[in-house]
Write a structure and sequence with these properties.
The protein is an alpha/beta fold and 345 residues long. The chain has twelve helices and 15 strands.
């Protein structure tokens, strides 16, 4: 399927190029939009086939492509998504789709009218490891899950400039840009929480970047509780990303770097390795792009569509409000804010 590509930056080079160059890639990039020749040349040199250079977005959208991949800085996503949908082009957009719930709801209206596929790349959802984890949870291999602890840790303190991390470009702090993946996984695994609580801190990054560390708590209607500790200032006790799921009869742990799943069964003191593919980010991108093309061909709804994104952003809005108030926030309050908009849609 011929597609256009917008935003061939750092993430494109290490995550998308291997996926697009895969021998079984269902997409062919027929055009790339860049402002400068040098950026296009770098992208073209990385691709295993020739493509065309565009400097005008309308020209790219009118070039005969069926879809566009949007990998721009976060604050530009919504506008480029809107224009593509209005031109009748299917859209695959990196998260976040929009900076807030209101703008995402507006895109939902446009997508519905266009009858085109709009998919958000929550790449964590497309790792085999996380799909297997959901199956293990559903099958109650550790019994009913009682509590969950998730951790995300990075160290961005040594960056030469924090300007690219300013929230007017990224949309928010660590929760909005990194913790969002675990929130999306929680929704996929357990449904929507009933209430949340959050504490935001700035250990190293300037306030313009939003919080660099967040501690979040979630309470679900079935009694399950969860915590998420996320930091880009090396303030969380984990190597990168890790999740622990405590069940009635056992414990499940998974480490992103090791790409493993371990099932601990205390009574018999057994530790069972659950089989899953050892994948890196480019593998999850390939899996997501493959799912996108299948949805386009079938005219079906993507797993990580605009509704999935809106649900995730509502939880982030509740957590942000909690951090501001210093108190728990019920998701019902957030739902009420948008009830009239949802009814109209």
């Amino acid at each position: 399927m011929p597609c256009g590509l917008v935003g061939p930056g750092h993430f494109f080079n290490y995550a998308y190029l291997p996926a697009l160059n895969h021998k079984d890639s269902p997409l062919v990039v027929s055009g790339i939009l860049t402002r400068g020749q040098n950026q296009f040349d770098v992208a073209q040199n990385g691709l295993r086939y020739s493509t065309e250079h565009f400097t005008d977005y309308d020209a790219l959208l009118d070039s005969g492509i069926e879809a566009v991949l949007i990998l721009l800085p976060n604050h530009l996503h919504a506008e480029f998504v809107r224009k593509a949908l209005e031109k009748g082009v299917h859209v695959f957009c990196e998260k976040p789709l929009a900076p807030n719930v209101s703008e995402a709801l507006a895109l939902k209206t446009i997508a519905k009218k266009s009858k085109r596929v709009l998919m958000v790349d929550f790449n964590e959802r497309y790792f085999d490891r996380n799909r297997v984890l959901k199956k293990v949870i559903t099958e109650r291999r550790a019994g009913e899950i009682i509590s969950v602890r998730a951790f995300h840790n990075q160290d961005l303190r040594q960056l030469s400039s924090f300007a690219p991390l300013h929230r007017d470009l990224t949309g928010g702090g660590v929760l909005h840009n990194a913790g969002i993946h675990f929130i999306n996984l929680f929704l996929n695994w357990f449904g929507c929480p009933e209430r949340v609580h959050a504490v935001f801190k700035n250990h190293a990054l300037p306030a313009e970047c939003g919080e660099d560390t967040a501690r979040c708590q979630f309470w679900f209607p079935n009694g399950l509780t969860a915590t998420l500790d996320a930091s880009v200032a090396n303030a969380v006790d984990t190597t990168y990303e890790r999740v622990q799921l405590i069940g009635e009869v056992g414990e499940i742990t998974s480490d992103l770097k090791k790409s493993d799943i371990l099932l601990h069964c205390p009574p018999a003191k057994r530790q069972l390795h659950i089989a899953c593919k050892r994948e890196i980010i480019s593998d999850s991108v390939f899996n997501a792009l493959d799912a996108f093309v299948r949805c386009v061909h079938a005219g079906s709804k993507p797993e990580t569509d605009v509704d999935d994104f809106i649900a995730t952003m509502k939880v982030i809005e509740a957590l942000t409000l909690s951090a501001q108030r210093g108190a728990e926030v019920y998701l019902e309050e957030i739902e009420t804010r948008y009830a009239s908009r949802n009814h109209a849609l």
